[in-house]
Each structure stands twice: as structure tokens, then as C-alpha cells.
Amino acid sequence: MRTDICERLGIEYPIFAFTPSEKVAAAVSRAGGLGVLGCVRFNDTEELEETLSWLDDNTDGKPYGVDVVMPMKIPTEGKAVDLKAMIPEEHISFVERTLQKLGVPPLPEGEGREGVLGWLHSVARSHVDVALNHRPVLIANALGSPPVDVIEQAHDAGVLVAALAGAAKHAASHVANGVDIIVAQGYEAGGHTGEIASMVLTPEIVDAVGPDVPVLGAGGIGCGRQVAASLALGAQGVWTGSIWLTAAEYDLSQGTGIRDALLRAGSGDTVRTRVYTGKPARLLKTKWTDAWEAEDAPTPLPMPLQNLLVADAHNRMNSGDDPDTISMPAGQIVGRTNEVRPVEQIMAELVSEYEETVARLEKIRG
């Protein structure tokens, strides 16, 4: 399964694992892939410092990456309290009514009030600054190209930059800005995603950026056959996310509702919606997402206002044990996350099924 990108990043397998869990990221890197830590959940740079120090010490010297959320053209500065003043009362009232209707209890006093500030441009820049004090080999941006000065900052530190793209024209623009690796994120993917399926998107992006720019296939990848298919489409590796949500190592001290919802979900139990951040993102379909599709629901706000609006609601729902009232990004591959397995086993199964698939295709070629 070794491709050119393996040599470039010092990894055994071209399997990239996006995850908000440092324990999952470390386990993937130790197993030969590249664990990529999602940084958006870190409001406190000190906490991010501690987490990356932990990664430095628990990856057996193997490489890892980080993922930030940074819009290139619309920097949003200012304190969260100023932005919250821009949120209409209609939206605030709707959220509270919906939580009451769903029977979601409040958090203990003092918890969950700040919101996730990692969606702010200024906070994402601080994440980059902190990361470059450690030893990531890759900084990925979930919203496409980061600003050119951030790309140059990473390159000066010897760190490669990856950017997600949902269309060939976006990928070409990323490369023109100096991005090193393109993640071709198909419609099936969890989180922020475009409108083109990976079977169509991956070869389009490979052709658009040319042979010198490595492309990672993303969206709907959860088994070795799908890894083989992505490489057959021209990708040098795969970017995975949802398959790690039920890894045994995944633990962000939340309620049991999230894991129960993931374990029971089928591939048809997701919805692409703007209710999570203000930009289209694929989530598990629950009573919460259904409420936002009702006739009396307001239109979701633009990023970052929507996330600031719903952050406390998400904390309340995700801290509980009801799988019907959670808010969780997940891709259509969630139909394969129906058991809890250690990262090492997931990685081993991806690799072995890939090898079996390639061997079977060799026989067909005859």
C-alpha cells in the first residue's frame, strides 16, 4: 500500500485519520498511518499545548498532523461575546424551545457556556502557532486553503499543508495558493462536505492538479476495498474520519448517547445541513436535526454565528445518554461503525482487506 506520500511523510500506510481524540490520533500513528488531531475543540491554547505535548510523547516518535478550521477570505476577529450580540433573539428562543421539547436538561452551572471558539479565524491562527512549537508533519485546513501567510509559516517550519476540496476548481485554487496536499472530500463524508460524490470527485481532482500534487480520497471510506478503490481512482492515500468515532480509544468524556447513536446508525441515517456551523456539514440524523427542518424553524446563521448559537445546546445534548437527541458530525460510512474496536484492529483490517482486494484484481487481470 506504500505510495509516494508515505516516503514524504515518513509513514508506513497512506491512511490519514482525522479525529478530535488525541488517543485515537496517537494510536493510528503508532499503527503506521497518520493520526490528525482536530483542533477546533480547543478554546484554550494551554490545553492544546498540553495535548500536543502528550502526542509528542505517545506516538513512539512517529509522525502526526493537526487540523484547523480557518476561512481564507473571511477572517472573523473579535471576542465571542461581541459576536453573540449579533445572534437574533428568534434563533435563541427557537433553540431553547427545542431543547425543552426534546427534554434535554441543562448542564451544571458554569459548564458549557463559552462555546467553541475554534471556529473563529483568530483562534485558528493561534492553533497553528501552538502546533508549530511541536512536531506535526502536516497542518490540514477543513475549509480549503488557509491564508497564504499561514501556508508560508508552515513551510518555513518544514511542515506540509493540506486542504479539503469539494470541487476540482477549488483544488486547483488551493495548489495555486501553495497547498501541498489536496483532500478530495466527497459528498458522503462527515462534517463540512460538498455536493459531488467521491467516485466522481477524486479522479476529477487528480486530473485537475496534475501528477505532482498528491491527492487523498475522502468520503465513504471505511474498509480496505474502499481504500483500494480510492487509490485506483488516482489518489495517493485516503483521509478517513467517521470510522474512528467508535474506536475503543475514543473518549472525550461525553455521555453514552453519542456512541449508542453511532453504533446503531445505518448509512442512510445522516443528513447534510447547515445547523452545525452555518456551512453545509453532514451529521447524524436525529430529533435535533429534524427540528431545524420544521416549518417554524429559523434559517441557520452564517459561520461562526450558528456554532456560537448552538454550542451550548450541543454540549447539553452530547453530555446525555439519549441517542435521539445528539448533534454529531458523521459520514455515510457510519453504517460500518457498528461495533467498538481498538484502533490497531481497525488499521489491520483496512490493510489486510486492501491487500486481499488487490490480489483479487490481479487474478482478474490474469
UniProtKB/TrEMBL annotation:
Kindly give the InterPro entries that the UniProt entry links to this protein: Aldolase_TIM, NMO
Where is the chain membrane-spanning? Answer: none
UniProt KW keywords: Flavoprotein, FMN, Monooxygenase, Oxidoreductase
Output the CDD domains linked to this UniProt entry: NPD_like
Molecular function terms, GO-annotated:
nitronate monooxygenase activity
The name under which this protein is listed is: Nitronate monooxygenase
